[in-house]
Amino acid sequence: MEIKMTRLWEGENTTLSTLDAFGFIEQYVLEDKDRRLTVDMPLEQIRKIKEPGRTAIPVGRYKVDITYSNRFKRLMPILIGVPGFAGIRIHSGNTHQNTDGCLLLGLMFGLENGDYMVGSSRTATLRLQSHIAAVLAKGEEVWITIESKYQ
Length: 151
Description:
Elements: E1 2-10, E2 14-20, E3 25-32, H1 43-49, E4 60-69, E5 74-80, E6 90-91, E7 103-106, E8 108-112, E9 115-119, H2 121-137, E10 142-148
Parallel strand pairs: 1-10, 6-7
Antiparallel strand pairs: 1-2, 2-3, 3-7, 4-5, 4-10, 8-9
């Protein structure tokens, strides 16, 4: 399964993307501010640019798995091998204060005080997680490609 996430809009502290997991766009993704990191940058450079808890992950392609989160006390999707970042999950939340570098899903979005937010986040997250779990249960891999095409 290939998931495509396209960063399209930037707020003051936020990045908003579309998520195409099944051949059509059905969800939005909220992240922290995009500081133009890429997966092929040297780790030292990523660490120099990154502001912990306030930076979107590098553009690139990552394997997705579902593992137990000690923080959230449940099974959740996780991105594997994100350079300079650890524990990057796909989970519910509405504002950039909920991200801490993770990807927040929503079925709708809004803009308030210069920053994006997402809505119906739990529904969106459960929907994607159930699809990921079904694919993994069949023994297939799940990957997410993150790209930037700002408008």
